[in-house]
Amino acid sequence: MKNIAVLTSGGDAPGMNAAIRAVVRKGNKEGFNVYGISHGFLGLIRGDFKKLEVRDVGDIIHRGGTILYSARCEEFKEVDVQKEAVKNLEEHDIDTVIVIGGDGSFRGALALESHGIKTIGIPATIDNDIPFTEYTIGFDTSLNTILEAIDRIRDTATSHERTFIVEVMGRESGALALYSSLASGAEVSLVPEVAEDMPKVIEKVEESIKLGKKHSIVIVAEGAMSADECSKMITEALNIEVRTSVLGHIQRGGKPTARDRIYASRLGSTAIDLILEDKHHVALIVNKGKIEMKDFKKVLQGNKILDTSILKMIDELSI
Ligand code: F6P
């Protein structure tokens, strides 16, 4: 019987459990022993492996987080550390690892490939910032969590006729900020991919007040600017009452939406299909709704393009 392993790495994302479930169940069905590695690449170094049976992944499809735990593992960049991990895999006779995570996790997978371990990547990050794939597991849940929070903030913003600055996650990616702005009807969205034009932001808020709008909502991605910084500039320029809200890690947890569970199940199951076809050194991607594969190197060298035309749309619709 062939032995394979699965791990989750980087920031957790709702839907990771559904992907683990799919890997274990489909893997078992195809006659593989599936080992779960705890705490991502850290568990790989420590030899923290556990064989997962079909029932071990019962009752998890609807749960956020990851039953395998996750970690960011800087030391995995060192070749000696990688060799330690490979030794642990060889001791368990495992030649293939399915890596569920973001671009940092895919870099770890590529390192394993350089030591002869076969790897397949499943894109999972709330940031939706992996090149070539239109979707990453966790994005939809996170977006809906943000929307729920902004809808609540909007009630208070209207009641007090205030301007609110809401800071969302995304150090290098503005996807959550951009699409939550469009979906919540925010006035302005600030994303790291586009240099901010504060005079224009201030003008937009001022214009909203003049138009008699009951509130203004500005959504900033953490990588663009902090909510406090933005609030300070608007307060100083307009002498108005501004409130801030930093949503933080509530954006990462919670029950995965149907969309995340469906993609996670499809991606997890397809990863096993690829192993059966002896394909590796690839990440699974979503292209026009279809699951395809792309060479890891190409994915990591690619550029994720944010559709910044949406910024104009946000501006035009919030009048
Ligand atoms: O990659 C997902 C993400 O949530 C980013 O949006 C955010 O910048 C980062 O992780 C936060 O990481 P941590 O939880 O390690 O502080």
From TrEMBL:
Subunit structure: Homotetramer.
List of residues binding Mg(2+): 103
Pathway(s) per entry: Carbohydrate degradation; glycolysis; D-glyceraldehyde 3-phosphate and glycerone phosphate from D-glucose: step 3/4
Protein name as annotated: ATP-dependent 6-phosphofructokinase
Listed HAMAP family: Phosphofructokinase_I_B1
Lineage: Bacteria, Bacillati, Bacillota, Bacilli, Bacillales
Top-level class of the enzyme under EC nomenclature: transferase
Any one GO BP annotation for this protein: canonical glycolysis
The reaction(s) this protein catalyses: beta-D-fructose 6-phosphate + ATP = beta-D-fructose 1,6-bisphosphate + ADP + H(+)
Keywords: Allosteric enzyme, ATP-binding, Cytoplasm, Glycolysis, Kinase, Magnesium, Metal-binding, Nucleotide-binding, Transferase
Alphabetized NCBIfam families for the sequence: PFKA_ATP (TIGR02482), PRK03202.1 (NF002872)
Keyword check for Magnesium: yes
EC number: 2.7.1.11
Family: Belongs to the phosphofructokinase type A (PFKA) family. ATP-dependent PFK group I subfamily. Prokaryotic clade 'B1' sub-subfamily.
Known role: Catalyzes the phosphorylation of D-fructose 6-phosphate to fructose 1,6-bisphosphate by ATP, the first committing step of glycolysis.
Record text on activity regulation: Allosterically activated by ADP and other diphosphonucleosides, and allosterically inhibited by phosphoenolpyruvate.
